[in-house]
Design brief:
There is one protein chain. The chain is built from twelve helices and no strands. The chain starts with 8 loop residues before the first helix and ends with a helix. It has two domains: 104 residues, Endonuclease Iii, domain 2, CATH 1.10.1670.10; 103 residues, Endonuclease III, domain 1 (Orthogonal Bundle), CATH 1.10.340. It is mainly alpha-helical.
Length: 235
């Protein structure tokens, strides 16, 4: 649920739309399969690094499920090594491509239920693919930026991404679900960063329940750490 002193999500979206014009997703892709692979790679890896890997290596070499299955796991592991956790990601990618061929004719499915049934694909991954590749809003992708800003702005009192997603879904019309993700990510990267948040430059500095300008604790941190943060830092 939203905190009583939280900023209403409608106001958050309205203000952020005036500041940012983000893309459908921050991951570069040509096809739905490209995007599915890119989102799998993005676990514990920055979008910038994923885009380097796909641009410099993957997209010149792989286009279809057959392409990913044609190489030995060791070769794909080296191609995606920079993303981290490359062995498990290779397993997910190749198992997913195998299932896509066996059950979906080599095409990426267009439903949440079918996508989350693929190896390494959770609601966040499925939501990104459905929204950016197919224009379908079936969920709100809650990554670390969305989670942090939802807590700081008082959009949710929860720390569990699944519960945060439910709070955001309840507060936003379906047509705005993708905007919630990409706008919060944009603000999280530019202003409301994980460390040394720039509250003095924030459009919500006089309304945010985590605002250093107002002497408020960081609601995205454990209570003890947040209390220390508010008492020692000012924007």
């Amino acid at each position: 649920m939203r905190r009583k002193n939280g900023v209403p999500l409608a106001d958050v979206l309205s203000d952020l739309k005036r500041l940012y014009s983000p893309p459908k997703t921050f991951l570069d892709f040509r096809t739905p399969l490209d995007l599915l692979v890119a989102v799998i790679l993005s676990a514990q890896c920055t979008d910038a690094m994923v885009n380097r890997i796909t641009k410099e290596t993957l997209y010149a070499k792989y286009r279809t499920c057959e392409d990913y299955l044609r190489v030995k796991p060791e070769e794909l592991e080296q191609d995606i090594r920079r993303s981290g956790h490359y062995r498990s990601k290779t397993k997910y990618i190749q198992e997913t491509c195998r299932l896509l061929l066996e059950k979906h004719g080599g095409e990426v499915p267009r439903t949440m239920e079918e996508l989350v049934g693929l190896p390494g694909v959770g609601r966040k991954t499925a939501s990104v693919v459905l929204s950016a590749a197919f224009g379908k809003n079936e969920g709100i992708a809650v990554d670390t930026h969305v989670q942090r800003l939802s807590q700081r702005l008082g959009l949710s009192t929860h720390h569990d991404p699944k519960k945060i997603e439910l709070d955001l879904i309840e507060a936003a019309p379906r047509q705005n679900w993708r905007d919630v993700t990409v706008l919060l990510i944009s603000h999280g990267r530019a202003i409301c960063t994980a460390r040394a948040r720039k509250c003095g430059a924030c459009v919500f500095k006089d309304r945010c329940p985590s605002s250093l300008v107002l002497g408020k604790p960081d609601l995205a941190k454990p209570k003890k750490a947040a209390k220390h943060d508010a008492g020692t830092r000012r924007a």
